[in-house]
Design a protein that fits this description.
single chain, mainly alpha, hpI Integrase, Chain A, two-stranded antiparallel sheet
């Protein structure tokens, strides 16, 4: 389960720039950002307007998903930071343009060519794999979760909070997601000065 890839912020920005040139770029970019916020593909593949936006179409602080949109029979919560809220606001404009007066709370955020049918998770994984491959990165849709957990841990966030943010039942699962490299190890010991 551990992912050996270490992807820095510059490479993430390069990937986001590359996605702009793709067909259906708005959807792919938003799915990619959801992944980088720790969501599994099952979580964002089935997101509906009602999951992300309140009745006034403002982005919720926390996306709460039932077991039908999560792994296993568990509910999950994803906290939205200010950047992701802004991205979802921009994405709402895209949805409003795409669906016009057909946009409803039941509308899926990410749909394939078939009218209002969510993307297939296997298709998402293949799409992410092909994007990462262009940047010589071995990974798929789950790599975003690995990067999310690693970034939180590397930023000094308590592992128990990281476990909660990643929606893991066991802290040992969270530990498997953490990636490290030589620079991170050097930075860690640098902080232990007397």
């Amino acid at each position: 389960m551990t992912n050996s890839e270490f992807v820095d912020d510059k490479k993430i920005k390069d990937i986001l720039n590359f996605i702009k040139s793709m067909k259906h770029a708005e959807q792919i970019r938003m799915m990619f950002l959801c992944s980088l916020n720790g969501m599994r593909s099952i979580n964002f593949a089935y997101l509906q307007v009602k999951d992300v936006f309140n009745d006034e179409l403002k982005v919720k602080d926390v996306i709460c998903l039932d077991y039908d949109k999560n792994k296993g029979k568990n509910k999950c919560e994803y906290y939205m930071n200010s950047q992701l809220k802004k991205e979802f606001c921009e994405y709402l404009k895209y949805l409003q343009n795409k669906w016009a007066d057909k946009l409803s709370p039941e509308t899926y955020l990410f749909t394939s060519q078939k009218l209002n049918k969510p993307y297939n998770r296997a298709s998402i994984s293949r799409m992410f794999s092909s994007i990462y491959k262009k940047f010589n990165i071995k990974g798929a849709s789950h790599l975003g979760r690995h990067l999310f957990v690693s970034k939180l841990v590397n930023s000094g966030v308590n592992i128990c909070l990281v476990q909660k943010l990643a929606n893991h039942k066991n802290i040992s699962t969270t530990q498997h997601y953490f990636n490290y490299n030589q620079q991170m190890l050097a930075n860690a010991v640098e902080n232990v000065k007397i």
